[in-house]
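Hey, can you fold this one?
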Amino acid sequence: MNDSKIQVFLDNKIVKSFIAYSIFRAFYGFGILIVTYFVDKETEIPWWLFLGFSMIFSRIIFKEIKKRKKAEI
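Sure. Predicted structure:
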């Protein structure tokens, strides 16, 4: 009985989207931390400006991933 409730929960579109977004943010966030370190140490670009750009860029990437996912279905 519990397996079916869990399966129903995991089949929910909102839950699937949340899980996909969380996985994306985990990998993207780790990459951004590494890149920000090198931007701060090696360039004159302010780290806060790079992180602001990264925030906008990540939303664009995630929207493209969602579009491709919908196209496959």
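The chain has a mean pLDDT of 85. Let me know if you want another pass with a different chain boundary.
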